[in-house]
Amino acid sequence: MAGFTVISDLCTGCMNCVVVCSLIQSGNHDRSASVIRVNLELFSGKHTHVFCRQCENPECRSTCPEGAINKDMQSGAWTINYDLCTKCGICADACPYGAMFWYASAPLKCDLCGGTPACCEACCFDAIIPAEDKT
Amino acid sequence: MTYGGYAGKLLRVNLSTGVIEQQDTQDYLPDWYGGRAMAARIAWDEIPPGTGAFDPGSPLMILTGPLTGTAAPCSGRTTVCGISSAGYPQEWYSRSSFGGHWGPELKHAGFDGIVITGRASNPVFLKIENRSCTIEDAGKLWGMGIYSAQNMIMERCGRDWRVFAIGPAGENRVRIAIAATETESASGQGGYGAVMGSKNLKAIAVHGTLPLPVAEPDKFLEVCRLVRNEAHASHGWPHEPELDSNKVKKYGQRYQACTQGCAVRCYDARFYTTVPAVLQKGKKLSGQVDCIAGLFPGIEGSFYDWKLGFEAGFEIGQIANDEGLNHWEILVGLVPWLRYLRNDGVINKIDGMKIDLDSPGFWSFLLRGISRREGEFRSALSEGTVRASEILGIGGERLKQLFPAWGYAGHWDGHGDRINYVFFPYWIVSALQWAVDTRDPISSAHGYGQNIMGWSRICSPEHGLSWDRIKEVSSRVYGTETCADPESGYEGKAYPAYWHGQRSVMKDSLTVGDQVFPRIYSRKTEDNFARAGDMDGPSFERHMFTSLTGIQWTDSELNHASERVIQLERALLVRNFNRSRIDDEAVIPYFERTEQQTNPRADSAVGMDGDKFRKVMDEYYDLRGWDRKMGRPTLETMKKFDLAEEAKQLGDKIVEKV
User: Fold this and answer.
1) Among residues B414, B505, B511, B652, which one has the fewest Cβ atoms lying within 10 Å of its Cβ?
2) Is A48 an interface residue toward B (CB < 8 Å)?
3) B331 to B327, B351, B357, B408, B530: CA distances (angstroms)
4) B359 phi-psi bin (left φ>0, alpha ψ -120 to 50, beta other)
5) Can you give the CATH number for the domain in which A92 is found?
6) What is the pLDDT of residues B226-281, one digit of tens each?
């Protein structure tokens, strides 16, 4: 299975994944451009995470009226074809994980950085790991 | 020119008038490039002689730096500067800093820092979001602990808001009061919690969604990636410590970043999710334990051998945080001093309660009484241990064993601080750092003593380096192997204090974490000198700074800008407080006592030789361009650092040249 998963118990709340992702997506530190989000619970330590699961049969793809979401065969990520996307927002409403974000008046989702997710490397505590590694 | 990394505005709030203004950060750039550097400039311009910590006009400066909140590793810190209420023998200009996530949030809210003056007529808090700020009523928050105050504001504003707050100690102007965010990120030393309290300012709540620009995004990303991958463990820890499996199982121990951008498994920072309370029966507590807080339970067989145990120690640490008291002062200074007094037969009770350091109830009585100024004895302790000794007229001699200078308990000094292992000659550098500061200098200067001791095979038998390798690596930084040689005595000790002085400014100005930067030693290179890509470890900060901001400084230029801050801070101390070599030498008697640990290559433990140390001070003053007699920047030095105009205000307090 393509993609990554987050082991919440290992997350230290450092936010490196969010910050690095935002830099890649927007060219600056714009957290709203990040396609991985961490809801910090600083008093309980039980942080939660929002990220694309790269579902086998994703709701975002099946609900898209334009067929604009397709699999990139190289990375295995579901990606948005912005030439077809009409920015209707149906995909964002459909995602059960809240991982189809809205940025610069358009949907934005994780494309696995073309195959090597930067968030995985930015995490120094092995909390973000390739999905196939999770046992 | 607009530089990357900065939010672009400084927020200025006058709590007396209610006037809120925004100033362009650019006014101070690039020279006063952030945090402590910017604060020094503002302090010089805006703090006249005679200003006390609690004067309404005394500005409290809470400033981030360009790297704060960016992809730079360990960059979540915020610097606090102003007239310190903890300063002794007088309230004078100093600094502190804290981690957590507050600083990054402030920048996303559009501000690089806040300068607060005045005093509100009633308790207030600041509510800051996306370039706007309002002064809100804090009547219901006043009297609350730091945790409750944060949670109440977050319930009202949103869970993703970050809050920097004071507890009862700050409200009551306790000189060892902290201001803090989350459960363990405190501006701990300096007594700035009391300064906030004196302004009737309970908290500062921030939230933002604004972007922070980057000059060279691809380059900055790559530099940060390389630095993050090189960084490992904290200073002096060649290996990455593991979690305690028993505590993982029993108390939910886990790693938790003590500040945003954390990239290392350090020895200190641990979060606990389920610790049974001892005093608050039936409750399960959660929170962070960093740094010295690990000492609350007591350590059997050590100088700090009280027997609270983990659960009670954890709870007492959390109480101290919530009340808003400085852990370092309590654990390394105040409590050991009380124990001395009890064992010496001077006292056995305080305010009617028997001194029992094994009793959680006693600790709670002690700490809550200090933060609320209850009872004669604890009210005296509210002034800090050093002032308390004077007020109560007891324990003066014992004080001299625990407090090197300026009202602060020992820290990497080889004498009073017995939790950290450092022997002669390495504490000579600490002594010099202590001598020329206005506070415990080590908080942003762990890079020498802690690094050398920790990387040695004495402290790290399995992972440490040979003395020859330590000398070799350190010579790349200090220019000679003598500086880290265990048999070098007083030779080569001025330069490390000088070098780490600049690095301390750099860390507090950019901002980056002191426990990780500057990178010197490494286990990831053949020669053990930290390196990543084509960057040398000590240049990491500069590479991150230039690619982020677009300010194309060389190492030498960043170093010069940082040393300029030291010159201006010293000039401020001369102008406002008449600081001189006489003050600096006040540390000598403390260090003349016999050290606590012995150099294995020496016959016996030693104390400082005052005459030899004075020569090291001479060397240090020469390096700084300060005259040896008074320890002040000369006119020539001020000109060299483009401070000729400022020098005019020093008049005949300074001399023409060395």
Assistant:
1) B652
2) no
3) 6, 20, 11, 12, 34
4) beta
5) 3.30.70.20
6) 999 998 777 778 888 889 999 999 999 999 999 999 999 887 789 999 999 999 99
Find out whether A47 and A40 touch, Cβ atoms under 8 Å: yes
Test B273 with A45 for CB contact under 8 angstroms: yes
Q: Do B286 and A15 touch (CB under 8 A)?
A: no
The question of ipTM being above 0.90 is answered as yes
Residue A10: list chain B partners with CB under 8 A: 254-255
**pLDDT tens digit string along B459-493?**
999 999 999 999 999 999 999 999 999 999 999 99
Cβ-nearest to B217 among A12, A28, A32: A28
Residue whose C-alpha is closest to residue B206's, from B271, B136, B255: B136
Domains parsed from chain B with CATH numbers? 9-207 (3.60.9.10), 232-402 (1.10.569.10), 426-521+554-653 (1.10.599.10)
Contact A31, B209 (CB under 8 A): yes
Chain B closest CA to A14's CA: distance in Å?
Answer: 5
| Contact A73/B at CB under 8 A | no
**CA separation for the pair B86, B191 (Å, rounded):** 5
pLDDT of residue B237: 81
Contact B273 A26 (CB under 8 A): no
Q: Smallest Cβ distance to B101: which of A26, A40, A118? A: A40
Q: pLDDT by residue (tens digit) across B178-232? A: 999 999 999 999 999 999 999 999 999 999 999 999 999 999 999 999 999 998 7
CA-based nearest distance B278→chain A, Å: 19
Contact B71 A23 (CB under 8 A): yes
Range of the domain at A14: 4-129
The pLDDT tens digits of the residues spanning B55-65 come to 999 999 999 99
Number of structural domains found in chain A: 1
Query: Which chain A positions have a beta carbon within 8 Å of B283's beta carbon?
Result: none
Q: Which residues of A touch B227 (CB under 8 A)?
A: none
Identify whether A135 is part of a domain.
Answer: no
Q: Which residues pair with B116 in a beta bridge?
A: B13, B60
Q: Note whether A8 contacts B: Cβ–Cβ < 8 A.
A: no
The pLDDT score that the predictor gives to residue A133 is 61
